[in-house]
Amino acid sequence: MPAAAPALDQLQRHLHTTRLLGSISSTLYYDQNTVMPAAGAPWRGEQLALLAAQLHERQSSEAYADLVAAAEAELDGDAPPQRRRNLQLLRLELNRQRCLDPALVTALARAQSHGNAVWQEARASNAFATFAPALRELIRLRREQAGQLADAEPVARSPWEILAQPFEPDSSKARLTELFAPLAAELPGLLESVAAAPASGPQETFELAEGLQEQLCSELLDSWGYDAARCQRSRSAHPFSCTVGPQDFRITTRVVRGQPFSAFLATAHEWGHSLYEQGLPRSDDHYFPWPLGEATSMGVHESQSLFWECRVARSRAFAERWHPRFQRGLGSDPWGGAFGFWRALNPLRPGLIRVEADELSYSLHIVLRFELELALLEQGMPVEELPAAWNRRMEELLGLQPATDAEGCLQDIHWAEGLFGYFPSYALGHLISAQISEALEQEIGPIEALVAAGETAALQDWLAGNVWPHGRSVNAEELVERVTGRPLDAGPFLTYLRAKVGQLSGAG
Amino acid sequence: MPAAAPALDQLQRHLHTTRLLGSISSTLYYDQNTVMPAAGAPWRGEQLALLAAQLHERQSSEAYADLVAAAEAELDGDAPPQRRRNLQLLRLELNRQRCLDPALVTALARAQSHGNAVWQEARASNAFATFAPALRELIRLRREQAGQLADAEPVARSPWEILAQPFEPDSSKARLTELFAPLAAELPGLLESVAAAPASGPQETFELAEGLQEQLCSELLDSWGYDAARCQRSRSAHPFSCTVGPQDFRITTRVVRGQPFSAFLATAHEWGHSLYEQGLPRSDDHYFPWPLGEATSMGVHESQSLFWECRVARSRAFAERWHPRFQRGLGSDPWGGAFGFWRALNPLRPGLIRVEADELSYSLHIVLRFELELALLEQGMPVEELPAAWNRRMEELLGLQPATDAEGCLQDIHWAEGLFGYFPSYALGHLISAQISEALEQEIGPIEALVAAGETAALQDWLAGNVWPHGRSVNAEELVERVTGRPLDAGPFLTYLRAKVGQLSGAG
Fold it and tell me: A181, B52, B276, B455: which could form a disulfide with B304 (CB 3.0–4.6 Å)?
């Protein structure tokens, strides 16, 4: 860093400390979800609130604003573009923080906590009506938040778009509608064709012992370069990946009775998230602790977890290589061979629950939620109409009717905490993963062949060279265009699914 | 809290936040020692330093000093004695903090870190000479620290005494000398008589499988009221107990090859620490987050861990009850019955290493260190003379000569970090445990009988009623006098040891 930029230097120290505080919060979160006894929850809540208040102060104070302004004033024509971009990203975030009325922030926090509690109840007793008022209030507050934030946006954005920015920077509903349209058009037909095909062998009626699942997860991670000196794996109620320090990466899994592949595939998924975090740029003054050293969007993050879960661990070549280990561990072969094992790893059946959905139907769950969020936030749909609208569209997209709202519009936690704009990232992850995979295959050959040859390290190297080092230098769509040479679209994902459906429906 | 004490109210909120920060630090410490990957260490160091700086600021700032002064000004004749004592303790700590030159604090932190590193090296290569300069510097800085702190002390104290205050408030070297004299006088003879007795059966040449040790530890804790909703047990390199929130208690153990009882007895020990923490008073305005809600001294803390380890888990009745479980788990009986098993739990052999010492020799290790600390800090003994002085006194007290300084004066980490005044608490723990046990037995009957009847809950109830709720209302010696009706002395401990040695030397 040039000596002539003292404010930049000071700003970097400020961001470094902010990162320390944020990572302390992450450590507490990890502890809470892996080992903290239940009675520790209220105190943990107070600890996290204290850190959140400190973080908010650091990111919105007058002193911090002065620091950013001073660093901006130091920018001259010779400033490297990375520095310019870092300051732009910090300025945007600062302006957003400062637009918000603290009273609204407090009201939102309270409404989120209330919404979560009421939702838990409503879901347990399948009583949407008890949740409706909380949801209405959350929508009202989020719209108010979007209104306050509008002034900070560099371009005109609708309320839903403003709320989606933290998850998917620069995304717009027009663009998402365009990206998702081919999914809604083609996937229901593909699902029907799968349903019409003859049944694919015996149902899974086996369990993998917990110790065996643990061992298979360890073997998987070891074969994918897991380094115990930088990583830690634990158990938690829900799998997650979490970065606790620049050289400290954690992932968690769980063993679910009745779902023998759940821990294994979740391990692949969370490891994909972690690899992206591990590969983010930290090497010079423009990256850590600056914004450019961060993940660029939830969609890109998800593309990396889905790559390892779906493109690798659910591939046919992977099934061939791992079938013997599962068979040996189990002491029998309920799949009747590697092809049956591959099919078992890829059940293609529409279901009501998003988090249990396969590659074929997952995006349709997202399309449904995206449409309903727009209806609720921007098209004046009363919350009372949500269950009926949900069920109608679920029937159209997936051919299913929830028997209860608990397995319908009450299934996800997101709306209960007023998180709108988050869902599309999950589907974008599938599209981005597929398009990046296409580019990867053009350069280093088919993923199936590399997996068959045991060369997953080549996949990792390619991602490490082409995807991860960009950080926030580019947004998600720019990243895809940079990596693949053309704008993101649903084509590669649909091509991949058509081929996979064809092979899975075949005779093996 | 009366409405007429607004400063007190504000001070309580201040202390509450200080507790939050301190417990965040504890959580990071727990994470670091149980799951953090090695590469996370430098960042974790930065996180802890940030929290330490915040804590220091909160405990020494002008604003905090004003708050304490304002709360003192609110005290009137009607103020409850607990409030008066809380403010006295806060004032004392504040005065100490404010006596210290920040430059010295920084120099000490650097010297501690340097001392630790040099000590690791010196111990590994058995080269005291390379450690000597670091030790000399640490002694110089600690003496300087004691000099700065002297003005804050409410009574005249020697440098060593000032340094011992954080561990054992109000302790004096005259009193410790008086307490320890009977130990140095009687224990060497007792040790000799044990050595002269015929060998007590076969050496342990068995290993307990890790899974079995884990299971036995779990059974032990379950039988002692372990509540998974408030407690968490993990593995770490060294066993410890740690309070992470007012309702969140952690203990750790380790499995050591060649030491089949290590995990089991360490679990008993750490659980004793945890029970004390769990039983500290939190019930009204005078306790948590005030000083009165804290542990009163390291010696009292140690007395509670030693009670469960030595008085309960090493008792003959306990051995009778648990021998079948160990035998069943192992599938054989290398002890030749419950008496042999009890003997195996109580090996009485002098050894060179403090942390491996038994009840009989442990205090002699402490007497040695106490005397040498006084020599180094107050009697001008040059650090070069430490190895020879150590070996000479070791021969006199324990009849052993270290072959190397690594198993002599370089064995402990304490001096490498300039911790002087800490060791006596370990021996005080034995004395306090024994004297409290005597009072307990007078009230509810012999521990052996209660353990034999499976009534360990009665032991816990008695401690919960008589020992734990005092917190810092009284210091260690006042606590003992309150609980047992007379001043602390070494009598009960020696009486207990004489009886135990007699029984262990018997034929079973």
Answer: B276
Average pLDDT over residues A145-158: 96
Query: How does residue B249 score in pLDDT terms, banded at 50, 70 and 90?
Result: very high
Q: Quick one: A461 and A327 in the same domain?
A: yes
A498 domain residue, yes or no: no
Number of domains present in the structure of chain B: 1
Residues A326 and A465 both lie in one domain: yes
Domain presence at residue A221: yes
Bridge partner residues of A234 (DSSP): A252
Residues of B belonging to the active site: 270
pLDDT in tens, B114-165: 999 999 999 999 999 999 999 999 999 999 999 999 999 999 999 999 999 9
Is residue A218 domain-shared with residue A110, that is, in the same domain? no
> Is the separation of the CB atoms in B190 and B501 below 8 Å?
yes
Q: Are B313 and B481 in contact (CB under 8 A)?
A: no
Q: Are residues A100 and A235 in the same domain?
A: no
Domain membership of residue B22 (yes or no) is: yes
Q: How far is CA A403 from the centre of its chain?
A: 28
Interchain CB contact of A39 with B (< 8 Å): yes
pLDDT of residue A231: 98
Q: How far is A368 from chain B (nearest CA, A)?
A: 39
**Containing structural domain, residue A224:** 211-351+457-472
Is residue A71 one of the residues assigned to a domain? yes
Q: Which of B35, B54, B233, B251 to mutate to test the interface with A (most CBs of A within 10 A)?
A: B35
Q: How would you classify the pairing of strands A231-235 and A248-253?
A: parallel
The residue of chain B with its CA nearest to that of A226 is B37
Q: Is B458 on the interface with A (CB under 8 A)?
A: no
Interface mutation target, options A14, A19, A24, A30, chain B, most CBs of B under 10 Å? A24
pLDDT (tens digit, 9 = 90+) per residue, A347-406? 998 999 999 899 999 999 999 999 999 999 999 999 999 999 999 999 999 999 999 999
Q: Which of A180, A454, A183, A427 is nearest to A310 (CA)?
A: A427
A247/B39 Cβ within 8 A: yes
* CB-side neighbour CA atoms (13 Å) of B311: 30
Does the ipTM surpass 0.95?
no
A51 vs B contacts (CB less than 8 Å)? 24
pLDDT tens by residue, A39-49: 999 999 999 99
Cα–Cα dist A78/A311, whole Å: 43
Give the pairing of strands B248-253 and A248-253. unpaired
The answer on pLDDT for A173 being more than 80 is yes
For B406-455, where are the alpha helices, taking DSSP H only? Answer: 424-444, 447-452
Tokens of B136: 């000399």
Q: Does A105 touch chain B (CB under 8 A)?
A: no
Chain A residues in contact with B42 by the CB 8 A cut-off are 247
Q: Which of these three, A120, A149, A179, is where a domain ends?
A: A120
Q: Which helix (H) or strand (E) holds A250?
A: strand A248-253
Residue carrying structure tokens 């011992």: B164
Reported pTM: 0.94
Nearest CA-CA distance, residue A39 and chain B, Å: 5
Assigned token pair, A370: 């995206």
Planar angle of CA A230, A234, A239, nearest 5 degrees: 105
d(CA A492, CA A213): 33
Taking the C-alpha atoms of residue A453 and residue A269, their distance in angstroms, rounded to an integer, is 21
